[in-house]
Amino acid sequence: MTAYEGSVFKRCGCREEDSGRALGVKCPRLRREDGAWNPRHGNWWFQLELPRTDQGKRRQARRGGLASQEEARRQLDHVKTLLALAEGEQDLEVQVADLIQTALKGRWPLPEVEEVRKRIGAGTDIRREPPLVEEWLRQWLDGKPDLAEGTRASYDGHIRKYLTPHLGKIRVDRLQARHVEAMFAVVEEENVHVLECRESSDPQVRASVRGRRVISLSTKHRIRATLRSALSDAVRSPDLPVTVNIASHVRLPSYPRKRPLVWTADRVRLWEKDGTVPGEVMVWTPEQTRTFLQHARRYTWLHPLFHLIAVKGLRRGEAVGLPWANTRLVDGQIDIRVQVVQLAWETITSTPKSAAGQRTITLDADTVKILRAWKRFQNEHRLAAGSAWTGTGLVFTRQDGSGWHPGQVSDWFCRIAKAVGLPPITLHGLRHGAASLALAAGTDVKVVSTELGHATTHFTQDTYQTVYPDVAKAAAEATAALLRGTPVSVG
């Protein structure tokens, strides 16, 4: 290992009266009469011969203006420690020396030893300054051209609204879990402010937060997931000295899966009394779903769409974007290959983002009958409209043949449900209900999972298996019957 020598000395800016030459270290005022250093005159320096440049030129590490001899020695030792990290490897010594020289010329603090050690360990060119978090996040997102548009929009929103404003100016290799937790603390403070203003009796205070939403726990988890994904690529990058994905160590309250709750008679009575909705995800009973579909028959251009979602659990975008070309009524099957995704109010047509989402579902005889009748009705209107008809090729269209906007379908769904007096669910609640109905009817969970487009049967079973109280009640009675010695059928 190379031994690095250096020196610490004191000098001043005094000059000879006759020649004007600098006295430097020879100024007699630097010491007192007893030979001790004069603390009121001059300042301390250190210097050390650095490894030569790539071109073979000699150079020195030299810095002055230091307040004490101890400070000069400390900084000299710091430089020696940095150079020792190269362990005698010539190319690495040059890089470390370049880093030291850049700091000295710029009058910046010397690089931290641990930081340089981490850069060396990452195998990167230690002279290259790691990017700021905002720079890396934008570079990361731009480097993913194959992202689904909806996913890209979600990532972009997280980066733009939260990660960049709160973390953007931190260097990516210096980002720590405490920085991210501080960001979420600020977000929660803003949530409290919004809620307090909404409850204020002052109209101006309420108006000040109009349009501002409360950031839910699920959104916080998605923001952390975006950062975790970006930092995973940073850890894998050979050009960045990032060795730990700190987002994985950020503490957030656990976010339990939202399991659907059914609108039982007791829950409906409570809702009718004071508007209480007992859960974030609600589904109708089979009787309530039948009531909705019977009333929806009055809306000829929407009933078949709602029926298909209620029976087969299609996602809204899958139903809105379904083409006749993928609908095989003779076989009684539908191929799910496209979906309409809503971004703000704009829409795009894309493929389902997961392999499980691209699937084939089998139709029951009643649904085939409804779709055949709907196709005849649609064709009659197409012929009557002539050139005014918009040829989209979609299964579900408006009166002029154009496709439905997903938001309009949701609005109509809520409007119809309210007109019937049914307790509130979202349009996606029809999909939840279809899954619960299929499992309650005894359909194998693998079949249900596949037709819903879930990646695993575990998710399907864990989320929907015990939604309907009648099913759980039947299972409980069957268990009790076994104890009585009179087993009964659960089916």
How would you sum up this structure, described in words?
- The protein has 491 residues and is mostly helical.
- Helices cover 48% and strands 9% of the residues.
- It has 3 domains: 6-122, no CATH class; 133-249, DNA polymerase, domain 1 (Orthogonal Bundle), CATH 1.10.150; 261-480, Intergrase catalytic core (hpI Integrase, Chain A).
- The strands form 4 sheets. A 3-stranded antiparallel beta sheet has the order 1-2-3, covered by helices on one side. Strands 6-7-10 form a 3-stranded antiparallel beta sheet.
- Residues 279-477 form the Tyr recombinase domain.
- This is Tyrosine-type recombinase/integrase.
- InterPro entries: CB, DNA_brk_join_enz, Integrase-like_cat_sf, Integrase_catalytic, Integrase_recombinase_N, Integrase_SAM-like_N, Tyrosine_recombinase_XerCD.
- Keywords: DNA integration, DNA recombination, DNA-binding.
Task: Give the helices and strands, then pairings.
Blueprint: E1 6-11, E2 43-50, E3 59-66, H1 69-84, H2 90-105, H3 113-122, H4 133-142, H5 149-167, H6 177-198, H7 203-208, H8 217-236, E4 261-262, H9 265-274, E5 282-283, H10 286-296, H11 303-312, H12 316-320, E6 327-328, E7 333-336, E8 339-343, E9 346-350, E10 359-362, H13 365-385, H14 406-420, H15 427-440, H16 445-452, H17 457-464, H18 469-484
Parallel strand pairs: 4-5
Antiparallel strand pairs: 1-2, 2-3, 6-7, 7-10, 8-9
Helix pairs in contact: 1-2, 4-5, 4-8, 5-6, 5-8, 11-13, 11-15, 15-16, 16-17
